[in-house]
Amino acid sequence: MKTDSNLPLLFCLLVGISLFSYSCKQVPKGLPEAFEEKAFPVYGPYRVYKLPIETGVKVVNPVQVSMGPKGMIFAANQSGEIYTLHDSDGDGLEDEAVLYSDLNELGLASPVGFAFSGDTVYIGTRSELRAFRDSDGDNKADVSWTVFDKMPVSDHPYEWTSALRVGPDGWIYFVLTTDSFNSGASPDPEGIRGAILKVSPDGSQWERLATGVRSIHGMDFDPQGNLFFADNKGGGNALEELNLLVPNKFYGHNVKKYEGTFEGIEAPLYGLETEIAPGGIEFNAVSNDFGGTGGNLFFAFYGPGELWNRGGVGRVAITKTSEGFKFEEFPVADIPKLSDLSFGPEGSLYVAHHGKSDYWYNVVEEKTGGFYKLVYDPSLEGKNPTQRTIKEENFTAASLENGKALFGIRACAACHAVDGETDLLGPNLKGLGKEFSQEEILDAIKDPSKIIKPSMIATRMVLKDGKVLLGRVVYSDQEKVSMMLVGNHTLEIPKDQIESSTEELKSLMYENLLAGLSEEETKNLLNYLSSL
């Protein structure tokens, strides 16, 4: 790609953010100590503040936080309210949420994508990409229109239009999440669900840029115009992936859907290790020091499923060399269940804490979730650690050998591969010890239905001849559904033979797998799993 020396400034002006918005600005002094959150481990010279938003829109399971027009901080609830955050008392912390637009009034849902250009805000919903504008300056959208609505839409709750960005060319880049594990997936003849697309600002033109992506909630352009994106592990993705967009490439997920349309798989640039389930990502401006992180790529991590204490903020320093890109990863803060993040106009980092929800990310409590603000404090330089302390595990060869034997005897190997590549009925367990503690692994074995990855949800299918099938969907199109059944046998079922299909939030994994094992045998099995 040809690089224009003025591209970084041109690009930032295009999306309404000046690189100079951060110049020489320091964090507001004297932030209220009452709202400083000291329970979260922090790595580096930062303080974490809980935004005391008590007036205006009720904050419930936020899925978005992004800087928008006029440098305002925009946010969105999973339930559909789009709002801006305001500091009504001038103490440096936003305390009011002002409604910008309510998607419920438009019959739209799942506002997990956000981007803007000038005074136009783009929101990605499950059924369309829609533009909004506040024409009278009252901080409430009074004009809106559909930009793109070609996405296949079914009743599945994981169909999202996510990771929106306005590119250097002024087009809107976005992702349609995969339909690979949806038995009721709508026809997708153009193969755009599970792909990265871009659309012109007026919606008159669009292109499919890449395929084979799974669940991307964050993309961002670096100053040179390279588009980086983070994809979630599973379904052919062996890692929590950091990728670089190469037009017309295939990125490895849902091979069957795109069979015959690609040559080879584009490998990820890097495997993220700070946490699992990356959400929003954003490059810090080169001019924003923020503790020596100018130009770094920041990540919001949701963490695994219903483990409500997991999640965090991470960053990666990316260096371009003659041999490609070099990556160095650091944790920033262990804040649970983060869905998104964004740098604000003064250079602090805002993060959206999704909070507790049901399996489909919808509200389960009267009020849950909120926002935190990470503030750089020069006085903390050198006082906080910059990496986590990792406990070294020294498993004996005998313990690992005995654990491996139990893994086979207890039929774990019948459903779980450990090579990072093979797709069996259950998740591939390669890297399990890096992602979960032994206590979390033990809990998952004892209660296998407590946390189920979306791609591992069981489906009960009743055929018109009365036969009942139980397994997980691995592929679906307008003519057939492929199900992996117990024994790792994949069966193709024509859709015209299906009477009914329902998802079940009960794991396909057997319960009581540890029954009869001694304490030492259980420990050996856990040691083996942790060593993978």
Q: Can you tell me about this structure?
A:
This protein is mostly beta strands and 532 residues long. It has helices at residues 7-14, 397-409, 432-435, 438-446, 519-531; strands at 46-50, 55-56, 62-67, 73-77, 81-86, 96-102, 113-117, 120-124, 129-133, 143-148, 161-166, 172-176, 195-199, 206-211, 216-221, 227-231, 241-244, 270-271, 278-283, 297-301, 312-321, 324-333, 338-343, 349-353, 370-376, 458-463, 468-476, 480-485, 489-494, 498-504. The chain contains five helices and 30 strands. The strands form seven sheets. The protein has a five-stranded mixed sheet with strand order 2-6-5-4-3, with no helix packed on it. Helix 2 packs across helix 5. The relative contact order is 0.12.
Structural class based on helices, strands and sheet pairing: mainly beta
| Shape field | globular
- Classify the helix fraction into a percent range: under 10%
Neighbour order of strands in the largest sheet: 2-6-5-4-3
Distance between the termini: 40 Å
Radius of gyration: 23 Å
Q: Extract low-pLDDT stretches.
A: 1-28
Strand coverage percent: 25-35%
Question: In terms of topology, how is this protein built?
Answer:
Blueprint: H1 7-14, E1 46-50, E2 55-56, E3 62-67, E4 73-77, E5 81-86, E6 96-102, E7 113-117, E8 120-124, E9 129-133, E10 143-148, E11 161-166, E12 172-176, E13 195-199, E14 206-211, E15 216-221, E16 227-231, E17 241-244, E18 270-271, E19 278-283, E20 297-301, E21 312-321, E22 324-333, E23 338-343, E24 349-353, E25 370-376, H2 397-409, H3 432-435, H4 438-446, E26 458-463, E27 468-476, E28 480-485, E29 489-494, E30 498-504, H5 519-531
Parallel strand pairs: 2-6
Antiparallel strand pairs: 1-25, 3-4, 4-5, 5-6, 7-8, 8-9, 9-10, 11-12, 12-13, 13-14, 15-16, 16-17, 17-18, 19-20, 20-21, 21-22, 23-24, 24-25, 26-27, 26-30, 27-28, 28-29
Helix pairs in contact: 2-5
